[in-house]
Amino acid sequence: MLWQGVEKREAMTVHEGEVVLLDVLSGSVTLKSGQSFSADLVVGADGAGSSIRKLGEFACEQKSYGQTAIVATIRHEHVHHQRLIQRFLPNGPVALLALQDPHESSLVWTMSATQAEAMQQYDDQAFGEALTEALQFREGKGGLGKCQVLDARHGFPLWQRHVQSYYKEKVVLVGDAAHTVHPLAGQGLNLGLMDVRRLAAVLTKARTRSWGLSGMPSLRQWSRDCHAENAKKQAAFSGINALFASQNTCVNGLRQMGMAVMHRLPIFKREVMRVACGSE
Known about the structure:
Blueprint (H helix, E strand, L loop, with lengths): L1 H7 L10 E5 L4 E4 L4 E3 L3 E3 L6 H5 L4 E17 L7 E6 L2 E7 L5 E9 H7 L4 H16 L7 E3 L4 E10 L3 E2 L2 E3 L5 E2 L7 H21 L8 H29 L3 H16 L1 H11 L4
Parallel strand pairs: 4-12
Antiparallel strand pairs: 1-2, 2-3, 5-8, 5-9, 5-10, 6-7, 7-8, 10-13, 11-12
Helix pairs in contact: 5-6
């Protein structure tokens, strides 16, 4: 939908290709085809493996979660009722995002790297049976029923990344190019959208006041604000992952008590959901 929206904007021209050179001082980029472009501000929004981040030599802190996420499209026996389902299993969370077809969902199943390597050796039938069993572990009656894989499965090692600054000369980073979080909360997209919303506000203000886009003190402040907010959420998601992965009896008891309290306090529950959905 985003791509379709861009194509409809007459003021935009789309050039496809891999960026191989970047000059952060001049704001110029060169594609593999040899085409070169320059801009007042280059926005790197090219994902976790960002070429802009690497070519711009943005300092980045990263660490492995020691887990792998297996993603695929699945078909299930019962309808999903447009629900986003997430179950915290002993070896990691399994999440299902409802698709347009009421019997299809997008799967993100997180587990240890060792378990994921073994699971990827399963054929589709065996994998579907394992997923069905995993969902029934907590789902019980009224669940999605028998599951089967519809397309190729892919495994992605999970890393937490965060650049030290989102801004350098004539280049800024947003979304996964600047930070990655654990997928258990499904918040990577929301965090990226918040980066963009804040950046758009800064650039709109600069345009109305006829300021140049690069070198603005407000861009430095934008970078600091985004970094601080996203660092807090990275820590929170990592903590949730550790909490639900723990097999300690005392920790499990406290976790269950905390979830029960949240469900009984609608105001607190709504606030958690508000923040999780990207509202400020």
